[in-house]
Structures are given as structure tokens and as C-alpha cells.
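Dear support,

I submitted the protein below through the web form. The confirmation email said the job was done, but the results page showed an empty box. After a refresh the structure appeared. I'm attaching both so you can tell me whether what I see now is the final result or a partial one.
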Amino acid sequence: MAKILGVFLAGIFALLGLLHVYWAFGGKHQSESVIPTVDGKLAFNPPPFLTLLVALALFMAMLVILGQSGFLGTFIPNQFFYWGTLAISLLFLLRAIGEFRLVGFFKTIRDTQFAYWDTWLFSPLCLLIAIMSFLILRR
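What the results page shows now:
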């Protein structure tokens, strides 16, 4: 079961990474729904370089999950994958909980397009990633 979860989660990270690469190189599809807004203005405007760094982090998370699931052999110590998977689980759990203003289940600003998608897609996906990472960790 851990291998199936690992492949599924690695696929999620790969898709998210590719989506960030698309945005970094000027893609606009759904870009207005993925950044929080305050009073109709973007809360932040990430430059392409930072968006590529997020993509790189997502691809690294994919590799960590694949390693923890047993797909990358024994060249890299298992402790690296263990601690990396634990960090992924905790980070995405914290993202799901949020910072109590703009993102997460406990956000206070709820009347924006981002808030809608965060409530129904982004935060639940982060919670799912956290749970799946923890289950892979416990294999």
C-alpha cells in the first residue's frame, strides 16, 4: 500500500511542479485563483525565479517520497528520506491549518476567489498530502 500511495503522491508533486514551471514561464491559466488577494490586490506577486524554486521544491518532494517508498535504491541513506518525508508531512499540515488570515482552513478572509478555491481544493489537498506522507512514513 505504501508503494501505491508513494506513486500517487509523487504524481501529485510532479503535476504541481509542472504547473509552477508553466506559471514561471508566463502561463496565466488559473493564475488569478492561486494567489491570495486583499481588497482586490494580490497579497504578493511572486517573481518567476521564486516560482521556479517552488517547482524545484515540489520535484524534490517527489523524489523524497519515491525514495521513502523504496523506488530509489539504497545509494542515499534511508534517514534522508525518512526525515524528508516527515518534513513534507508537517509542512503540508501547517499549510492546511494556515496562518489564520489568508490561507488554510482557519483563514478569516473568505470572500475572494482564492479563498473559495483554498477552502474547497488547496487546503484539503494539503491535508491529504500531509496524511499520505505520514502513512508512507509509517510503512
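Response: this is the final, complete result; the empty box was a page-load delay. The chain has one domain: 2-137.
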